[in-house]
Amino acid sequence: MDIRGISAPAALPAYCERAGTGPWAEPLDAASNLAFLVAAAVALIAWRRARPRDWPLLVLVAGAAAIGLGSLAFHVAPSPLTWACDLWPIRLYVLLHLGLALRRLLGAGWMVTLAGVAALAVSVVASTRAWPASLAGGIGYLPVLAALMSLGGWLAWRPGPPERRAAGRLHLVAAACFAAGLVFRTIDLPACAVLPTGTHFLWHLLTGFTVALLLRAMQARLTGRTAVV
Q1: Is the dihedral of CA 131, 134, 135, 136 positive or negative?
Q2: Which of 13, 46, 69, 207 is the most interior residue, by most CB within 10 Å?
Q3: What are the tens digits of pLDDT across the range 35-62?
Q4: Omega before 52 within 30 of 0, i.e. cis
């Protein structure tokens, strides 16, 4: 694909902001990944203060940092390897989050949890393969959005303790942020003619905030505090 005359391998996505071949050809797309690192840092501080240590939650915190670092690597040095580093951390994160949420927020058994995680994984892969070029690659994230909305709605409106319902509301806000991010991801190239920076960096910022909300929802529930929405 050619963006502003700069060639990119056909197998890799190209974004509006890339106006050269150097490592900082996408300054906003690269720098906006700081949102994931900030989300991970804030969650890590809260994790260190909590007792007892919750090691599964720490895995989610590390996953949030991996999303930011992987995406940063790709936007600084696009290649098949860094593209994999960009793609897989966020997919693995949502699967891990769903599994932990099903177990701890809904009290699901292992069989139900594994079935839910497997269903999401299959739907993401199937949708990506069915429409690989649709919505700037965003089709593969629609099952994730559906999972966030379903989980949040079930937690928010199902009778239960206030901290669980608050966690549900945080999931719904996270879903709204994620949906907005998908819009900006989708219009990045169409908007390129009128907005030279593109809009992909807004996808990073909104998705980073989504991850921060999800981590907050899990921490508030697991520490017994009522999250404020």
Answers
A1: positive
A2: 207
A3: 999 999 999 999 999 888 889 999 999 9
A4: yes
| 60, 106 contact by CB (below 8 A) | no
Q: For 158-172, what is the mean pLDDT?
A: 88
For 7, the 3-state DSSP assignment is: strand
- Lowest mean pLDDT, pick from 26-40, 124-138, 196-210, 212-226: 124-138
Is CATH 3.30.70.100 correct for 26-222? no
Left, alpha or beta for 53 (phi > 0: left; psi -120 to 50: alpha)?
beta
Q: Across-strand partners of 7?
A: 2
- Cα separation of 70 and 223, whole Å? 30
Q: What angle do CA 50, 56, 61 make, to 5 degrees?
A: 75
Q: Would you give the end-to-end CA distance of the chain in angstroms?
A: 42
Q: Where are the domains of the chain?
A: 26-222
- Note whether 36 and 64 are within 8 A (CB): yes
Non-local (6+) Cβ contacts of 35 within 8 A are: 68, 204, 205, 207, 208, 209, 212
Give the residue carrying structure tokens 């169409």: 190
Q: Which two tokens stand for residue 153?
A: 């709605």
Helices (H), the chain: 27-31, 34-49, 55-76, 80-104, 110-130, 142-157, 162-186, 200-222
Q: What is the DSSP letter of 228?
A: P
pTM (2 decimals)? 0.88
Looking at residue 192, its amino acid is C
